[in-house]
Amino acid sequence: MKIINYKTLLSLLMLSLIALGCVPKLKSNTSTTLYFIRHAEKVNGSSPDPKLSEAGEKRALTLVNFVKNKNISAIYSTPYRRTQQTVTPLSQILNLTVQTYNPMNPEEIKRMVSLHRGKTILIVGHSNTIPMMINQLSHNEVMKAIPEQEYHNFYILTYQPPKVHLEIEKY
Question: What pLDDT is recorded for position 28?
Answer without folding.
Answer: 52
